Fold these 2 entries.
Entry 1:
Amino acid sequence: MATIIWTTIGAILTLSVYSFLYKDNPFYKFAEHLVVGISAGYYLVIYYFNFIQPNVVAPVFLLRIGNEAIGLGSSMWWLALIPGILGLLLYTRFFPKFGWVGRWSLGIYVGGYAGLGLSPIMQARVLNQIGANALPLTSITNVFLIVGLLGTLTYFFFSMKHKGVLGVLARVGIVFLMVGFGASFGYTVMSRVSLLIGRVSFLLHDWLHLI
Amino acid sequence: MAKGSDIRNIDRRFIFVLVLAAVVWPLLHPLRLPMDISPPVQSVYDAVEAVPAGSIVMLAADYSPDTMPELQPMAETFIRHAFRRDLRIVVACLWPASPPLVEQALGPLSEEFGKEYGTDYVNLGYMAGGIVTLLGMGASIPETFPTDYGGTSVDEIPLMLEVENFDDIAFVMEVSAGTPGTREWVQQVQSRFRVNLASGTTAVGAPNFYPYVQSGQLTGLLGGLKGAAEYEILVGAPGDATSGMDAQSVVHALIVCFIIFGNIVYFVSRRSEKRLAQDV
């Protein structure tokens, strides 16, 4: 019985969301606000128990786990306060007078992520990709790939006028770019249609039992 | 009034109804359209087949309910494939909404294959931190995920006693809807720890990741509902993705017709407008 009730609620909400395609209406607005409210509540709880509780509350206020002294029970309890305070400083931007203090936290956050990301990104997205495109011109596929790569790179080379050989290569680059955009658009359509299929399947299968 | 101007102002709700009909009709009356297996999907299947029985594999589930139609079939089929091959599964999530979605798949499949929680599979749940978490897993997975999804300490889970870091994971299947996801796994994990990594992504994201397949950084790739359907067919368990592919194909054909029709109307009305301008 509970399954039927929950499935019916899901179906009504699905239809409410899609009713927007006809025109904006109170059913759509209700569903929209429900999603926003539930998501905010869900993520608040998840983030509290995954970020704040284990990283700040537990290390500071718990005394020990098993035989291990932690938090106020150890001499290093104050270390956990540092990221907590840095996190709180981010909220100073709500007070224009003290907003600049939040930049310290932001600076550490951005610097840390940049440091962690720079080397792997260079390795994974630049060096490995260059290596993967250094191919022998022994097959049509490889020739196609190299021509496409050179053409596209040439199109984004703005230090010289696109005339002569450079112009031809840039035009070839445009063709490859257009094919790339077309493929991306096709995949996007496929993705959106998949979501519609998922919802219609839910309505026809789980709710109405027609399939 | 120029020829074609009426049809250019067609109510877009007419198009919505046609698209809905194109989805509903094949779902009610399956057409069973043929489907080829693409090489990146075949590579995923072959990679899982190549992992020795008894090995530990990881399902990295990084998606939320809004992308379930595309990604849940991938996760389900991977779990089925791994269980069928007697591989043991460790699930780890970088998205907070993922653990219950994976539970939905693990429950019935573990029952079907007679697999036991803690010995044959474990769901470590969600851990915040994105790339920091990935780097932590490279050093120690038990320290990064000290408890499982249910709150049990990993020290009490037999399967986790055999897992220290990525050296103990024979294969990683990353099912991803965005960031953190496949890109971060390739950048932070594959490039540093050289893990055997494959990915299943939404169709929107798939074009971004094909270069990683070509360079060998990804063993294979499942792109959107089609990738999921192909994988289901390879594993011999056609499911939600396969049944949705008829509707997908019909809608695609309809959209192609819309594009052709739209272009014809555009050129006809442009010519008509030019003639009108000349007459004036």
Entry 2:
Amino acid sequence: MAEIPMLQVKDLWVEVEGKEVLKGVNLTIPVGETHVLFGRNGSGKTSLLMTIMGFPQYRVRHGKILFKGEDITELPPYERAKKGIGIMFQRPPSIKGVKLKEMLELCAKQNGYRIRELAQEFGFERFLEREVNLGFSGGELKKSELLQLLAQDPDLALIDEPESGVDMENIEVIGRMIRKLLQKDIHRPRQKSGLIITHTGFILKYVPADRGYVMLDGKIYCQGNPQEIFEGIQKHGYEECLKCLRRMETPLNL
Amino acid sequence: MSEKNGNPVEPLKVEEFVPAKAVEPPKSVDELTEEERARLKEVGIDLEAEDKLGLFIQADCGVVSCQCAPEGLELLPITEALKKYDWLREQYLWKAVPAEKDEFTKITAEDLDDGYFVRVFPGEKVIYPLQTCLYIRTDRVAQRVHNIVIVEEGAELHIITGCTTHPHVTSGLHIGVSEFYVKKDAKFTYTMIHEWGENIHVRPRTGIWVEERGVVISNYISLDKVGSIQAFPTCRLKGRGAVGQFNSIIAAPEKAHLDLGSRVILEAPETRAEIISRTVCYGGEVIARGHLVGKAPEIKAHLECQGLMLTDKGYILAIPELEAHVANVDMSHEAAVGKIAREEIEYLMARGLNEEEATSLVVRGFLNVRIEGLPPELQEKIDQAIEESRKGM
């Protein structure tokens, strides 16, 4: 019997404030695999992640989200978090008066992760006493987010643009954090799955992925080897994806 | 312009209350029941604690505890101190707060119940906090208190005052006149925690004088139910380089009428002042005032007034005022009233907190003004109190 996938998204249609942002998305991520979603800004990548996490303004008009085989389409975000889904926000808000340490302790409530050790490992210890995300730089925000995810230790990590606004020095650390989160440094079989959004693709240099997709206008059109897709996009840009689709006569209502 | 602007809290009829002197006070803390001891503990007054530096408790009109461990510090009931020291009456009594200020100061001047007198001798640094407690024990009592604190040159003192009522008291009036004198190079921190009751009316009248390079830090916390509080401590920075810092952390549950704020008058060059207030409104009425007066050059003063409305009931009226009388001043204020950001709640929900837990954490963070010199138990108590008052939403 085949193993139940970590995540299955079935014909998902979603609108935000009356505007259709996802138009029939299908996606399956098996246990232990990391998938990468490419696409321009505004193509619907973040909307897909936010819908998988369950934020109420992303209204599911049609379709289903199954997590470990269970239909979670109607669950609120905190129930999904408790079941093992975690998200790294691209632009997280700051929480005044709450220390990062407290936040990490809340995240780690169920699995008792050793907060200080974890922060030390990624050179982030001096931020533990700071207020969550308040005045953090681009790279610091990403580290704060990933540290929270590491404390939370989800089975499925949704990672939104991990390299945006990060300088070259920090991107290596961020890569390491994601590798740890997704168990990239242990031998298979891995238990953790990931879905990474990127429009530049640079993170692939640091985090190997099993499968790639291209998202255009709220729909996934292309899937395959992530490295190959990334190279294609680097060489020809997303324009080529559109041309490719036309060549393949796939109907795309632009 | 709001019709609420400047509206004082409804006038009180003093004659409707029983003078505290008409009631026989307990003779010592031994007469306080377990229930009362627990109540005092809630405002940080732990009768069992061994490591106290000093403890003053006044129940209704009577002083039930007035003990003090260290040398370098004098603690007396004010009525005794006034008998002992003529200079106290001549130089300090009713100087920082005028006796004729209003009806409440007037009746306190006419017939005082008691209060505390604290004096730290020059150069003595008393690091552990002195605890004082003003306690209404009998129903419908009007308590008239007058406190004087003198921190002499180069000395340091921390006081934590817990004010509360007997758990079964349903109404009462507390008048508390406080005059604080902070001398040259002295430092004084004063943390006041109010935990009254639904029909308790509170009229503190506070005046503070700070001399050259003296520092005063005042923290005011009121998170529980209360009838009305009207307080507007006035601090005069009289000596060059004096510093005044005023923090208030306030929650306004339904039925509470709060008119609170601080005024700092910067009278000498190079003085600095900061007023920070955080208010959470759960349906009560709050006026959050702040008034900075710049009267000397090269002063720096800032006022920060933030409010969080959690329901559609009640109101927050923020009145930040800056008043400059000379050219070379640096004065600023920021005031903001709003609701909890949806974005923050959702962020926390994605980390596994349900909506209630997320709201509670954001409110706690909002009220989390860093309070210097607060013992951890007290900080814990504040966190608990915030948790408690949140339930009244």
